[in-house]
Specification:
Layout: E1 10-14, H1 18-29, E2 33-37, H2 41-50, E3 66-69, H3 72-76, E4 82-84, H4 88-98, E5 108-110, H5 123-130, H6 133-136, E6 139-143, H7 148-152, E7 157-163, H8 166-176, E8 181-186, H9 189-211, H10 215-236, H11 247-258, H12 263-272, H13 277-282, H14 289-304, H15 309-319, H16 324-332
Parallel strand pairs: 1-2, 1-4, 2-3, 4-5, 5-6, 7-8
Antiparallel strand pairs: 6-7
Helix pairs in contact: 4-5, 9-10, 9-11, 9-12, 9-14, 9-15, 10-11, 14-15, 15-16
């Protein structure tokens, strides 16, 4: 344990998907004694017996200092740090169970990239609704271009950690940093969360373009105009537009729209090739957050009167049975516009 980092003894990771498990592994390698909570009993058993998350992160050896549990109470008992990695659709339910177990000012890092469908709230807002007020200042958000498999291989990765308490963010930054995992500090909670959520929607759209075989030009245009939609919604919600040019914005957007490890891009490719959403999702163990986020993003755009044509067309393909080819045609045939200045409307 590195004394210079003043590393705490115990940390909890709530959620044992690929990303949650990867961060639990990273923390254990940093000298933390880590307990990871998993909803699935088979995941708990596999980590305990094989030191491997065979379902969500197969082939990656986990340190013996990383213990698995199916008990939230056991997971967060006397910890100095909590990482929350539960999919957005289950976040509120798990947070409601966690709330009575958290009474202090334990730092909490949310790595969930999504928007709650029913309420249209970002994850930090859901946390503020469910956790005690004493916890609110301790809520931070980690996001950025970071495929779990590459982090586990020790490949260079850079992410953003945002929180309202700058001193806390700096402390957590020092706990998480490794020679291969670089963490930048930020204060824009809204922008960092929106970037992490909306890029999944744009990745589905980029996948559709690739599935239709429309070429690199079309994908580059899609990514660029997708970024403008993210900035428009972020600005309407009070985010700093500059955040979307950073790691949690354009960085994560480029990764998920082009990387072969992106689940959301893979969903889009198969949609573009004519497969049904039901069949595609049946093949996935892990959640493709962009499917749920698309509906929530369009709900926010409608509520705030923000123009988001790409997000709208993704919803049409996902939920209304619209053909991918027709959605692309409708986007291309929209009325002519100026490029500069469209971020604000």
């Amino acid at each position: 344990m590195a004394e210079a980092r003043n590393t705490p003894v115990k940390a909890a990771v709530i959620g044992a998907g690929a990303w949650g498990t990867t961060l639990a592994r990273l923390l254990a390698q940093q000298g933390f004694s880590v307990r990871i909570w998993a909803y699935e009993h088979e995941v708990v058993d596999a980590i305990r017996v094989k030191h491997e998350n065979t379902r969500f992160l197969p082939g990656v050896c986990l340190p013996e200092t990383l213990a698995a549990t199916g008990s939230l109470e056991q997971a967060v008992d006397q910890v100095s740090l909590i990482v929350f990695a539960v999919p957005s659709h289950a976040a509120r339910s798990v947070l409601q169970q966690l709330a009575p177990l958290l009474t202090g000012h334990t730092p909490l890092i949310s790595v969930t990239k999504g928007i709650e469908e029913d309420t249209l709230l970002l994850m930090a807002q859901v946390m503020q609704e469910t956790l005690l007020p004493a916890m609110h200042a301790s809520i931070t958000v980690l996001s950025g271009p970071s495929f779990a498999a590459e982090v586990c291989k020790g490949l260079p990765t850079a992410v953003t950690l945002a929180g309202e308490d700058a001193e806390l963010v700096r402390k957590l930054q020092s706990w998480l940093m490794t020679p291969a995992f670089r963490v930048y500090a930020a204060t824009d909670l809204i922008g960092v969360q929106l970037g992490g959520a909306l890029k999944n929607v744009m990745a589905i759209a980029a996948g559709i373009v690739d599935g239709l075989g429309l070429g690199h030009n079309a994908r580059a245009a899609l990514v660029t105009r997708g970024l403008s939609e993210m900035i428009r919604l972020g600005t309407a919600m009070g985010a700093d537009p500059r955040t979307f040019y950073g790691l949690s914005g354009v960085g994560d957007l480029v990764l998920t729209c082009t990387g072969t490890l992106s689940r959301n891009h893979a969903v889009g490719v198969r949609l573009g090739q004519g497969e049904s959403l039901e069949r595609i999702l049946a093949d996935f163990h892990a959640v493709a957050e962009g499917v749920r986020t698309a509906r929530a993003a369009w709900g926010l755009a409608d509520k705030l009167h923000v123009e988001m044509p790409i997000a709208h067309e993704v919803c049409q393909v996902l939920f209304e049975g619209k053909l991918s080819q027709q959605s692309v045609a409708d986007l291309m045939e929209r009325a002519a516009k100026d490029e500069i200045g469209t971020y604000a409307r």
